[in-house]
Design goal:
Layout (H helix, E strand, L loop, with lengths): L1 H37 L4 E6 L2 E6 H44 L1
Antiparallel strand pairs: 1-2
Helix pairs in contact: 1-2
Length: about 100
């Protein structure tokens, strides 16, 4: 039971780390979209690997919006997993504490 508890805690840590990384990615995308919205240029440069590629601004905005949406869906899913893990951890904590009494 204690091993399961430790495993659940590790899973929770991993989920939280993934969720925070995605939140940072969404914030960066929002910042990039804001800059693109303020730009009067029709073409922009996008980093692909170690190369800059010239692309239409609208195309880059669309790509970023799609990535942002996907990331937000993943965040929502991770939040559900996080809640589930927290519930399981609390139940196990109750079992472990009653076992120790």
């Amino acid at each position: 039971m204690e091993q399961e508890y430790l495993s659940l805690q590790q899973q929770l840590r991993n989920v939280v780390i993934q969720k925070e990384a995605l939140k940072i990615q969404v914030a960066e995308i929002e910042s990039a979209l804001k800059e693109l919205a303020n730009s009067k240029e029709e073409d922009v440069y996008k980093v692909v690997g170690s190369v800059l590629i010239k692309k239409k601004k609208a195309e880059v905005e669309k790509e970023l919006a799609e990535i942002k949406e996907d990331s937000q869906i993943k965040i929502s899913s991770l939040e559900n997993i996080e809640k589930d893990l927290i519930g399981k951890i609390k139940k196990l904590e109750e079992k472990l504490s009653s076992k120790g009494d």
